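Notes from hallway chat w/ T.B., transcribed later so I don't forget. T.B. wanted the structure written out for a chain they're using in a teaching module, and asked if we could keep both sequence and structure tokens in one place. Agreed to drop them here.
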Amino acid sequence: MTKINAIRYVALGLVGLWAGSTQAATYAIDASHTTIGFSVRHMVVANVKGTFDAFSGHIDFDPENLSEMKAAATIEVASVNTRDQRRDDHLRNEDFFDAPNHPQITFTTTRVEGELPNVTLIGDLTIRGVTKEISLPVEVNGPITDPWGNERIGLSGSTRINRQDFGVSWSNTLDGGGLVVGDVVTLLIEVEGIKQ
């Protein structure tokens, strides 16, 4: 190998290392250690909480290059769980989520703002076939290596949306004023991801 070719070889290797160091790793959502939930005011006096028990998704993350961070999730509407079968069935029907015609809720980031560990995921949320941009502030924890050698990260955050914006519009008015179900819904996420 000539001296010039050797220099080119080393230079290409350094470029490859640099390119590899800025490539985001993909973390699949670990469903057994993740909660995707919501809270909404009921009868004006209390908040009722629920979860979606079936979902999938991933996070692309490189702590050295936040601009490469992306997240996507798909939630199965029929898995809604508020610990009350009658209420859950009502949430699945056309008054609320209309699960037979709109079986999934999706979220996909379009950009990320802020500095680690506190960043804001900005992206498209689709519910009942309606897509709106939302901002989801999250705390990013990790990456860490668990006792079994898996690399993990965690995202913890919440945001508020108006369900009317997504066509989830059923409600009744109480005799004394106020709604049976509030319009403002707090989304709550605790996500753990495993590097693929």
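Follow-up for T.B.: Confidence is low (pLDDT under 50) at residues 3-21, 174-179. Might be a good example for the class.
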